[in-house]
Amino acid sequence: MSRPLRLLLVPSRCGKMTPSLPVHVAASGLEGLIWLIVGIIWLVFQGLANATKRKAPPVPRPSLKEEKPERRVFILHRDIRTYGLREALYKRARELGVIFINYDVHQKPNVVVNEDNIDVIVWDHILHEPFSIPADVVTLAAAIVPNPDTREIARLYKLPVDMDGFLLEAHVKLRPVDMATDGIFLAGLAHYPKPIEESIAQAQAAAARAGTVLSSRWVDLDLVKARVDEEKCDCCALCLDVCPYEALAIEREEGSRAAAENGNGKQRLVVRAAKCKGCGTCQATCPKEGISVTGFSYRQLSAQVRAALGTA
After folding, report:
1. Owning domain of residue 230
2. Please, which pLDDT band fits residue 44 given cuts at 50, 70 and 90?
3. Mean pLDDT, residues 191-206 taken together
4. CA distances from 2 to 28, 36, 47, 102 (A)
5. Which of 1, 58, 56 is nearest to 29 (CA)?
6. What's the number of domains the chain is made of?
7. Residue 29 falls inside a structural domain
8. In sequence order, what are the residues at sequence separation of 6 or more whose Cβ sits closer than 8 angstroms to the Cβ of residue 310?
9. Angle CA(190)–CA(193)–CA(195) in degrees, nearest 5?
10. Which of 44, 228, 242, 254 gives a 20 to 30 Å CA spacing to 286?
11. Nearest 5°: phi and psi at 200?
12. 236 and 187 assigned to the same domain
């Protein structure tokens, strides 16, 4: 029996309760698919109608320097990296007269609280002498640290982390929201400290990437996988200990019922292709050349080296 599917509208962001439209359709069948499409179209039109009723976004407040040009604003920093469109913000701040002072980690600023004022003493790297700044307000830009549970989650799902404890993507350019483990995608501050608009853009990319996986009926595996040479492998299990993805297992071949009862069946190493990432750790560990990665056997690697040196 096919499972019924219900679509139920939720309250809109405008604060008004959108009337619910329960649509009972079958999980399979042309009629059920038509009703599902009708329900989705109805949701889209309701969202567009609600969007037109929303108020215009508030006008952003002026910055401290724009509000009062004679106000002195200092920014003490160790390093500033203005990537993307944020370079324009940095230039705009410099044009308005905001003063940026770089300090060294061994000569951090010192805040002196007096009875009637606050002084911030910083080492000026241009004048090479201490510089005192009388301040009315001192604001600390707090650092963002990873969640302490991140390393435990990374250990359970075999996810790589950097030296600071943030999660690492599979590839910075080619797979920016994919993790090394298939089916897990990355977005937000778990990756690295970033502004809210970048977190939203990365979340949208992760959702789109997940959609491509969910929309596919079959998932093709990469051809770069470990393979076992049964003539050289003696099931020493050294590769099992170093495999970071638990893609290797030792199975027992049951020659007969008596051998199975006595545990004397022949053992063989098996590669779970769905888990193997072709990292080559098993190949580097095996002392008998009993396992290798497809396309990267020792013979093939030697041929590449000889070709690169011109001695082939």
Report:
1. 226-255+265-309
2. low
3. 91
4. 7, 15, 30, 66
5. 1
6. 4
7. yes
8. none
9. 110
10. 254
11. -65, -45
12. no
